[in-house]
Each structure stands twice: as C-alpha cells, then as structure tokens.
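Re-run with default settings, no changes from the original entry. Doing this only to confirm the output is reproducible before filing.
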Amino acid sequence: MKKAILSGSIVLSCLFMSAQQIKLTLQQCVETGIANNLEVLQSDLQVKSDEINWKQAKLNMLPDLNGNASHGINTGRSIDPFTNTYLNQNNSYASYGLGSGVIIFNGFTLQSLVKQNKLTYEASKMTLQQRKDNLTLSIILGYFQVLNNEDLLEQARNRTGLSKTQVDRLEVLNKEGAIVPSLLFDLKGQYTGDQISIVTAQNALETAKINLCQLMNVPYSKDFSVERLDAIGFADKYTDTPDKIFETALLQFAQVKAVDYSTQSFQQAVKVARGRLFPTLSLNAGIRTNYSNTASSSTFINTTDVISDDYVIVNGNPSPVIRKESNFSSQKISFSDQFKNNRNSGVSLDLQIPIFNSFFQRNRIKIARLDLKNSELIAKTTKTQLQLAIEQAYSNMISAYEGYKILLEQVNAYAESFRAAEVRFNAGVGTSVDYLTAKNNLDRANINLINAKYDYLLRTKILDYYKGVKLW
C-alpha cells in the first residue's frame, strides 16, 4: 500500500510539473498528501525506529557470544606465556578466546523492557495515524473550499449572465426611446459589479487550489482541478449524539489510543527501574587457548656416562665421579599443536548484588514514577479536551444544519420574489430599484446557501473524524 501511494504521488507530481490537465478525486488528494507530508514521513521513520528497539529488546534475552584474539611481540626481559618463566629474548605470542553468557534473573528487567518498547511502538503507530487523520481532515477542508469556490464562481457567472441579458434588452429599448436611460445605467452598474464578482470568485478559487496543493506538497498548476462529489443528502440530519460519539472516540480515536499506550509504556518503565534493585544472576562459559614462538618440546635420545667435577679418594688418590646424563633433543611446538594442547574452558554462575550505588537506582524509580504521573495527566487532559471538542463540533454541526435549512427556505422565497420582480420589470411596471433589490437578495441567499452547504458537510466530517470513520 505504501509503495502504491508513493508511486501515485510521483506520478501526480510529474503531471503537475508537466502542466498537463489533471483532475483529482478526494481520495487521490488525501493519499498524495499523506505520501508527501514531512511530519507524516518523519512519524513513519519514528515508528520504524521504535519497532527496531522493540525487536532488539526481545533479542537482548538471548545468550551472547563473543570471540577475541590477541597477537603481540615482546622484546627484552619478559614472561614466556607458554612456560610462565622469565626469558630474555624476543618472542611473539597470541591468545584466542570464545565466551558466552546469558542472564538468568535480573528482577524481570529484560521482560519489562520488552513490554515497554512494544507499548512505545504501538504509541508511535497511533501518533502516526493521528497525524494522517489530522492531515486528511485539513485536505478535506481544502478540497471542500475548492468546491465551494467553484460553486460561488458558477453562481457569479450565472448572475452576470442574467445581468448581461437585461443590459442587452434595455439597450435595444433605450435606442427606441421606450425606457428612461437611467434604467439602462442602473443595470449596467449592476452588470459591472457582477463582472467584478467573477474576478473575485476566480481569484478565491485559485487561492483555494494553491492551498490544497500546499497541503498535498505538490507543485501548483493552473490546469489542476478536483472531481465533483456525488450528490449528498444535505437535508439528512446527523443521527449520532455527542455521548455516543465520545464513547466511540475513546475506543477508536488514534490520539486517545496513543496516550493510553504511552501511559502503559511508562508503567513498564517503573517496573524496569524497580527491577534493577534485584540481584543479577548470570551463566557464563568460555574457551581459551594461546601460542608462543618460544614454546618447545624435548625428546629423550639416550643416556651416557659423563665425568663430573666431583671426585672421591680411593687408596689415597682422588678419582673422578662418573654420573649418568640423559640426552634430549629440543623442537619447536607448531602453532596447530599449541592451539590444540593449550586449550582450556570454564563455566561460571555469577551473582551480582547491588548493595549501595549512591541511591542511583532508587532515584531512577522516583523519576520513572513522575514520568508516569505526567503521562496520566496528559491522558486525562486529552480525553477531557476530546469530550469538549466533540461537544463543540456537535453544536457547530447542529447550527450549520439549522442554518442550511433556513437558508434553503430563504432561497426559495427570494427566488419567487425575484421572479415576480423580473416579470414586473420586463413588463415596464416595476422599477430598477425593486428589480435589483430582489436580484441582490437572491444572489446573497444563494451565496450563503452554498457556504452553508459545505460548512454543514465539513461539520459532519469532523464528527466522523472523531469516531474514526473513513472520511472519503
């Protein structure tokens, strides 16, 4: 899905850059904005980072395995690592080792860390979703603003066309001397005012498109337009109550779920800090070997008689003492033989008991509890503000609905009033003041109705947003 959104974003961006005619649906606008928004992309990176931290916390429960190797050269008087005796010559040496260890118990700190990082990861996902939802709502507002201004532009063109028709008719009558010239000038003034309204509406429409492009983070093109929405039952009143919407929001709203996950994460952080007060029991094992280029072995050859420096007196004469002497040959021990013969291994069960560490761990527990308290306050405030926001949004929706219904009746009334004024004016029995007053009243009512229609639709979308309903 992410690749599809990203590919679609690239295609849309290319189309904007090439200034081709393109018309986007509401869904395309939302998906493009989500794919390009900096805050959303950064939140997505944070989610991936928190996921890695969670997986690493689980991997930390596995035994570790580490190897080491050391090579060196000694000059002068040094200790032979092979015989552990002093020698006075250059020698090279090496040592190799492989060790592994696993924590058996440390106050369940590792398990609590896994839970804490998992909850942090879930909170990040909800924060990402919240930013997507916020951006979606902003894009929908921008999309509706474009549609609203398109309707206002169409309304301006229609009333300008009507004024133009009247001006053309009165110019013919004026040439024939059938009307007072002031009637023509009154309608020409109205016509120029309507032309200015077209320019104003056109500028408002382009501004709305630019704002929508900013929300989508794509280049602006004058050829850019949006698809019209399907017919919407504006007369249908919103059925859900604020209490029901709030109950649903507590279960579905991403921001609420984010603060709940965050609070649970801080609860685990307290357990992590408390667990560090317990002793740590670990099992360790290792294997080692070493090598020295001075290491040698002696092989027995034979035994010979050797005259020593000692003597004995025999018959008054000194006679030398002959002793037996074993003869050996010395050979260097190869690297492979030393690597095999010098090998040793060991297993240990280690217990580390924290006795006194300047109250460091106890203060960490206090800080963790303060962080938890702060998170609980944030969660409580978030839910309170959400309930107030829903009540306000619902009140605004009711006001928009009632206003729309009243304006619809007003448009119908002014339409009938204008029809009657137009008939009288065309028949020459009505004044231009009566005609223009009726026309301006109808124009204002139509403009207000257009604004009210999209205002009510937006208010319903805001309530759907709080319920976690898909907004398109």
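The two ends are 17 Å apart (CA to CA). The first strand starts at residue 22 and ends at 24.
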